[in-house]
Specification:
This protein starts with a helix and ends in an 11-residue tail after the last helix. It is mainly α. The longest helix is centred in the middle third of the chain and has 36 residues, at about 80-115. The protein is built from eight helices and no strands.
Length: about 170
């Protein structure tokens, strides 16, 4: 694995803030919903939802990066290096969303503990606590499940990335 290209892809993903930040929010909500859903008996629907969202994002990246991929192929990058662009952005969004959810859970639990807020009284904090704060085991399980469910989307994105002709970069659109 070419780590130099991988870290460049993460830096490159930061430039696409209009796409990365909304999907970080989508992934954070996905972490909440799937973590709660994995504890229920009909967890397959939640796994299907995570699969659809993660596959859709990988395909969306490969669609929006087609011109960039063709430019990189034109200057001599290989197919594996071009694929690292997609993998880097997907991992960036997943890990950043996971860390954001972990931080929000810590912050809410810290506020509740610091101010000795009673969660049994039906307050706003009770609703926020039960909606946002996720136990550690379901949160980490969800993280690895979502990472695993992104693999089929990455295969589809790889097929699309390999099929991008280098001459597309030189055509005017």
């Amino acid at each position: 694995m070419n780590f130099r290209v991988f870290f460049k892809s993460v830096k490159f993903a930061f430039r696409a803030k209009k796409r990365v930040i909304p999907f970080m929010i989508v992934y954070a909500i996905l972490f909440i919903v799937v973590s709660d859903g994995l504890l229920s008996s009909d967890y397959l629907w939640y796994l299907l939802m995570a699969f659809i969202v993660s596959t859709f994002y990988a395909i969306l990246i490969s669609q929006f990066r087609r011109r960039d991929m063709s430019v990189f192929k034109c200057i001599g990058w290989g197919n594996n290096d071009v694929m690292l662009l997609v993998i880097g952005e997907v991992l960036l969004v997943t890990i950043a969303s996971f860390l954001a959810m972990l931080q929000i859970s810590f912050e809410i639990m810290g506020i509740i503990a610091y101010f000795s807020i009673d969660l049994g009284s039906g307050t706003l904090f009770q609703a926020v606590y039960y909606f946002v704060v996720i136990d550690a085991v379901p949160l980490f399980t969800t993280f690895f499940v979502i990472l695993g469910l992104q693999i089929p989307g990455l295969f589809i994105a790889q097929r699309r990335a390999v099929s991008v002709p280098p001459m597309k970069a030189l055509r005017e659109e």
